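Input/output pair, single chain:
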Amino acid sequence: MELALLGGSLRPGSASEAVLHLCAGLAAGHGARTTVHTAADLDLPLYRPGALHRAPAARKLVETLRRADGVIIVSPTYHGGMSGLIKNALDHAEELAHDRPAYLDGKVVGVAAVGWSEHGAATAVSALRTTVQSLRGWVAPMAVTVDATGVAALDVPSARAALRADARLMRRLDILVGQVTDFADRHARLSV
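Output:
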């Protein structure tokens, strides 16, 4: 089973990118092959409907989504919603409109958001869920909000270690990743 993981921010030491990599490690533990697109990979031109040419990174993202059995998205929280970088990446999924099935139909999508409070991250999770549903994705029941205030002042290795050491966070991420991999695996076996 193949999972696409998208997320992070362009800020050095991004907590959302650290969470994205934690999810990739958990997915490997669940037997999934993963393709990770960090913020640097998602720094794409704005999506333009009907454009004849797409940037190579945009084409790579669309192909990754097309191949994936499931998707995990981790967004930083910007002003109560997902980042523009993540929204633009999801807008590029419009290139899947004429696929059969179209968009993310038949793919389970897990979402997580990282913010300065769990409340702010919860509004970003809500926005992610709405966008995924609009793309016909099947949203995993578990979503994860991460309060990054405790790791913001730490250097990158210390912040990643602190997130990894948070047993509650790791348990919630494992449930999210487990739901995505279990559903994706079952759906893939039924589709054969």
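The beta strands are 2-7, 33-38, 70-78, 81-82, 108-115, 138-147. The radius of gyration is 16 Å.
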